[in-house]
Amino acid sequence: MYNPSTTGSMISTSANRLYVYEVEGLGQSGQASKMVAPLRRSGTRLITVPYSRMQQETQRIMQLGGKIVSIRPANEGATITQASAEQSASQHAQKSVDKSVENSTSKPMTPAKEKQKVPVNIYKPKEPYLGACLSNDELVGEGGIGTVRHLKFDLSEGDLHYLEGQSIGIIPDGTDDKGKPHKIRLYSIASTQHGDDVDDKTVSLCVRQLEYKDPESGETITGVCSSFLCGLEPGKKVQITGPVGKEMLLSDDPEANIVMMGTGTGIAPFRAYLWRMFKDRERAANPDYQFKGKAWLIFGIPMTANILYKEELETMQDEYPDNFEITYAISREQQNSAGGRMYIQHRVAENAEKLWKMVQDEKTYVYICGLKGMEDGIDEAMAAESAKDGVDWSEYRRTLKKAHRWNVETY
Known about the structure:
There is one protein chain. The chain is an alpha/beta fold. The protein is 25% helix and 25% strand. It is built from 11 helices and 16 strands. It has helices at 54-63, 82-87, 93-103, 224-230, 267-278, 280-285, 310-319, 344-350, 352-359, 374-387, 393-402, and strands spanning 18-24, 44-50, 67-73, 129-138, 148-154, 167-171, 185-188, 202-208, 211-213, 220-222, 237-244, 257-263, 295-301, 324-330, 364-370, 406-410. Helix 7 (310-319) links the parallel strand 13 (295-301) and strand 14. The protein starts with 17 loop residues before the first strand and ends with a strand. Its main location: membrane.
């Protein structure tokens, strides 16, 4: 899945204003760059930042493994949401990604038991890893919409390693219309940390070819990097950077309940989770992680032919019926209760009572990945259900986020 979620636009205000950042995950000095800090760390601290340094401070906090809970104008009650805070990292999308990839040096630890170090930026844009494409397979069935490819890359000639839920960067060959090298694009990793061959020598991606019509000219536009990857021939070497990302790291509690809500190529990190949980060779490779909890995938796709990894997903469900459940939202084939198309938010509304009970269990972790448009519908359904118990969903969701039990990566 292509992930541009670390970028966005600056907050507009007068240059002499001060803002208060509420941040968690940094030491009391706020200078975590010289120490290895736990990723999942409770407690927050306040940092006052002048407007002129908001971009630099946001990047610094993100690079040091901190998490911005909110930003508010000093002496004013208005609060800027976490999403807006994270988006303020850069005026230009790609510049922010490049800079954070180049400068980040912190190596936090995984959420639950804090045993493993999280690998970050082993390979940077200026010195990428060259990995050969081992395979490039179509995932969309006959009669489906568009093209989605599963690509596997060789890592045996370097030291690139990663955890489930992270992303890698791809620098496509060629130059842009200004004659400069193409910018890096981030894609969620679709394989476990051991790779599809369970030999620690590969990494896999799930990539949809971007194609749309220009609203003014009517010309068909194709994505630079997605077209490059979808057309890649086995044997061709690709510039790879990373890994990056901490938001979607899988809890390592084998008794956790894992709820996954995704659309399209948002399945990528969930494939990694599920393969780790249920594939025989993966279970043999991870004796300390034998999943015993409940995994539930709510997956939105346009047609049955677009159910990515369908056969393997349903095989796992058949083999582990007490531990794994799949709920599809097939928009062009199913109808919601109002007679319209069935989207993922409608499935969440149908199952809101069950989901609400699950998220009240401290062992439940929710992961949302895919199109940003589904978020509001999910929140509306959960708000309606939690209100029956007199609970304000927006406040409750914030407590879940602080506990790293509500994790979102959308675009």
